[in-house]
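The authors assume throughout that readers already know how a fold can be written as discrete tokens. For illustration, here is how one protein appears when written out as sequence plus structure tokens:
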Amino acid sequence: MALPSSRLRVGRGVARVISEVICSAETSRALPTQTPHAAPDRKASLAEEQLPNSISHPKWQRFVIPSVSNLLFVALLLALSCGMMGGVLLRDSDIGWHIRNGEQMLLTHAITRTDSFSSTMSGHTWYAWEWLYDVLIAVIHHLAGLNGVVFFTAAIIAATFALTLHLALRHGANLFIALFLLVLSLGASAVHFLARPHVLTWLFAVIWFDLLDSAAATRLSNKRLLWLPALTILWANVHGGFVLGLALLAIYLVGAAIEYLIHHEQRPQIRSWLQYLAGLTALCIAASFVNPYGYHLQVHIYRYLADRFLMNQISEFLSPDFHGGAQQCFAILLTIAIVSLATTPQRPSTSRLLVLGFAGYSALVATRNLPTSSLLITLVLAPMVSVTMVQTVNNVTVASRLRRLLSAVSSFGFRMHNFETSLRGNIWVVIVLAGGVWPCLHNGRFGSAQFINAHFDEKRFPARATDFISAQHIGGPVFSLDYWGGYLIYRLYPNTKVVTDDRHDLYGDQFIKNYLKIVRVQPTFAEELDRMNVDWVLVPRWSSLANVLRLTPQWTAVHEDDTAALFHRER
């Protein structure tokens, strides 16, 4: 969520791309013809086409052998918490103020309404729209420290992608196709693999879309949809991404309205669906007001997202740079979607077409939308491409060699799909979760082995300079980079206050303009420091601001290390 951004290197393969993207990504801040995704009965018919003989195996194997989705969950959980990608979730320091805000609410038994972390915004109204997540993560941190925070985040990410694979298979996708698209989604989402509340939005978006699209396929009032207002209440209190759920409802309303105008003979059924969907939308909108701030939360979010200056400065709100690995994974996914729409003999429903358009557009507008857009595209695309492949096999105008190849892939993929959906090996998920929670509660150790060791990277964050500030009892306020602010709050609050952090919606565009004048060392930077009453500056050691302060008589470097330099001004 930080204002500065960095570029990603392109890997040679998808697996390597995911790893490299995570390590060097920029920090921030569904009665048209049915596809398998639309109708479960179509899924069954496809399976029958590909599997003349069902696969049988002893019942006990169904519970012992893990499914591919279970294996995916376990692999992602271990990789993101203690494996080769174990350090990536703490590349962003937002989690620091989330933890401290949650602790503050637990101590005061009151929901935060004003800022207490910043010297410049102290006492100002703060819409802590992720307050419920903050309380939850503070409890986890109290019990298991940063190890618990990282393990929890890794579990949410792993659950999201495992659920996406499971839903794609349930709606008739070929296992190989679903896995291929999911790997691309993982690569695209890696740019935002961070310990922050937005990962819950990914999970909620997948659940929301499946409930809504499954009901839209039959145009019947589905009692399962009544979970959406309840989910809205939860969503609106853990992350501002709840607006995505409302946007999807609007898309399906528009899609149903278009189909009402096109299909005259089906108007009674479509009208009934439209009325039900409109009522559901109204309930969800009303449910979004069930938060500590009422309608002020929606107004605040709108003003924040409508602030063009902030949107043009915050790196994660900028359009993707397609020289990066994550962005290239999304470009491949989007290309597959375009080619599939152009070649599929069965037109997807209007609502799904609108979802694909919305997902593609939102990802091209802002990098932070890459994960949710990739997941939505995968859920729509996987069953559709699987149907196209089956129909290509049966198309006599296609070259026989290509048909034989696709037939082999399709047949084996659906055999694996049938075997996959018959397994109930969730016991392994439970075992791995339990096995991971134990070391988190015991300083990351499992016996004599260090299982997980979550910490902020000293090369990325000013760890030694923060130690110096704490040892010298420097009360501040300390001016530093916005993306270091959360780390400083985590390490120094309440003894030392920061001047700024990356809660850009709290500070506003005028403050950010002044902040940028300082970090960019514009002619009036000294005046801005005076206006903020700053006597302590902590910046990267070889930044432009550090070099200028070294040449300024009244400023003295009191601490320097390989990462940061701390300056003090004598008045």
Q: What stands out?
A: Residues 4-55 have pLDDT under 50 and may be disordered. The CA atoms of residues 541 and 563 lie 6 Å apart. The radius of gyration is 26 Å. The beta strands are 445-446, 449-450, 478-480, 536-540, 555-560, 564-569.
